[in-house]
Amino acid sequence: MLMATTLPTPAPARIQATPPTYSLENKRYVKSIRIGDWSIESTKRPILNSDEIDMNEKSLNLPLPEMTFGNNGLSVNYEPHASSKLELKFDTIDALAGVAVGEGWEERVGGGVKVSMAEAWGKSRTSPSVLLSDTPLPSKPVKPHDWTYSTCYSGSIAGPSSSRWQESSTAQIPMKLLARQDPVLDQILFYDDVPLFEDELHDNGDTKMNVRIRVMPHCFFILMRLFVRVDGVLFRIHDVRIYHAFGSGEVIREVNGMEMDYSSVKAHLEKQSDLTPLTDQNFVYQVMMANASKDSKNTSTRVTGKPWPGLGRRVEVMMLPAANEVDAAGSGLRDLSL
């Protein structure tokens, strides 16, 4: 776990008098924008086919969610110089690689969820690839795994070794600025909402993960969200927000994981007979944020083993590499959640 580091307080990012020049490109599955020293690309393709599912399940040792958009993702590249590059990446398969698997994962990793049908369902769960074929359902049980797909994935990074996240007690994302709606200063130059995966948990609820980005003349803002609803048990949200003001030398990341008992969220419904708002991520998020300062009684008693490791909030800052910093070959990807 990263220790809190005291960073020099950066000067407040000011909106540039002349916004960076930009260009857009739209293809069948790929949208992109190049703005200043940044190039951003979102990819949205159909769900994986049976062959792709088989390959990835073997690689991950995990039965994939019912709807796995394994070729989807978001790539954000900073290239101040041809020989210097920093990439932030948000990828479906990398996200699923963060799902706990193996015997005893509840005690080893934490966050196990117990419902009346969980054990029976987990033992009979079949791969989505089987549902796409005419072959008989297999009788062999699947390997133990977190059936809610509660990954704590925060993205991946590739670039110079000096590019790393450092925890900060002073940095913050300017949410009021992002909520502003000036038709000129806050014009949305680029937007996309990229689904990563979704599963109905065998009619026990819903798990969804997606990543959204918007680019304005003065900044870009990313929100990647995991939303888990286990009916009658709990809600989980794991948010990763990333902000960069053009012209500044830093990127700010906020990671926030919350969990709340299903009945506690339900108690905030205007009409207890209408459960529709419980499928609305924004409604659930607002309830959870309003109760975030309260004690741990909001956590469901049907969480087995250790607590879910995604709980908690942290803010981190990464200083951008200088134009003369060469991206060392083989620097590779590093998990942003470190």
Explain what this protein looks like in three dimensions:
Belongs to the TIP41 family. One of its GO terms (biological process) is TOR signaling. The chain is α+β, with helices and mostly antiparallel strands and 338 residues long. It has one domain (22-320). It has helices at 50-60, 92-96, 105-108, 118-124, 128-131, 175-179, 262-266, 281-290; strands at residues 22-26, 30-35, 38-43, 67-68, 73-81, 84-91, 112-113, 156-158, 166-167, 190-199, 205-216, 219-230, 234-245, 250-261, 303-304, 312-319, 333-335. Strands 4-10-11-12-13-14-16-9 form an eight-stranded antiparallel beta sheet. The protein is globular.
Summarize the helices and strands and which ones pair or pack.
Elements: E1 22-26, E2 30-35, E3 38-43, H1 50-60, E4 67-68, E5 73-81, E6 84-91, H2 92-96, H3 105-108, E7 112-113, H4 118-124, H5 128-131, E8 156-158, E9 166-167, H6 175-179, E10 190-199, E11 205-216, E12 219-230, E13 234-245, E14 250-261, H7 262-266, H8 281-290, E15 303-304, E16 312-319, E17 333-335
Antiparallel strand pairs: 1-2, 2-3, 3-5, 4-10, 5-6, 6-8, 7-15, 8-17, 9-16, 10-11, 11-12, 12-13, 13-14, 14-16
